[in-house]
Amino acid sequence: MTWEPQENSRTMRESSIASFEAIKASGLLSEERLRAYEAVLKYGPVTGSELNAILRSKSGHKRLSELQRIGLVSEAGKKVCRQTGRRCLAWIVSESTVIDGDVSRKVPRPSVADIKKALDSMRDYYRHERDKGTAPGDEFIRVMRWLVFLTK
């Protein structure tokens, strides 16, 4: 089966393409995760089996939960899988995926120690704000989870 973007697939917004380019340039994702993210961006919504077929891999579907943990993809509901013919969970690029700044600028990858130091500061800030009754929102938590993921 040849994979082409589906007629009814979401239209790629300029912000989604810019986010992808920024993520790619940052070097923060492994090659496998970046390939999976790009496939979901281009062909989504996709099921795990469809992603495996697109990537010509037996383990591409494993990247979906990894990308979900850091907020880059999200569940889009169920659809009939073009590979298995069964109703399966489908995935799309998260609407909230936004990377600000100049996407052409290369950002060096921080060390694990630097990430852990930043996480400690973020936790302190979160606790301070929570104690005041003004805890940061979901985006702050998503960034923290992403940083934790990068330390593994």
How does this model look, in words?
This protein folds into 2 domains: 14-93, Winged helix-like DNA-binding domain superfamily/Winged helix DNA-binding domain (Arc Repressor Mutant, subunit A), CATH 1.10.10; 112-150. It has 152 residues and is mostly helical. Helices cover 50% and strands 10% of the residues. The chain is built from 6 helices and 2 strands; from the N terminus they run H-H-H-H-E-E-H-H. Mean pLDDT is 78; it is low at 6-11 and 97-107. Helix 1 (14-26) packs antiparallel against helix 2 (31-43), helix 2 crosses helix 4 (62-69) and helix 5 runs antiparallel to helix 6. It has a two-stranded antiparallel ribbon with strand order 1-2.
Number of helices: 6
Query: CATH first level of the largest domain: which class?
Result: Mainly Alpha
The largest sheet is: 2 strands, antiparallel
Label the structural class: mainly alpha
The H/E string reads HHHHEEHH
| CATH homologous superfamily identity of the largest domain | Winged helix-like DNA-binding domain superfamily/Winged helix DNA-binding domain
Rough outline: elongated
Widest sheet, order of strands = 1-2
> How many domains in all?
2
Provide the CATH architecture of the largest domain: Orthogonal Bundle
Q: Write the CATH fold name of the largest domain.
A: Arc Repressor Mutant, subunit A
Chain oligomer state: single chain
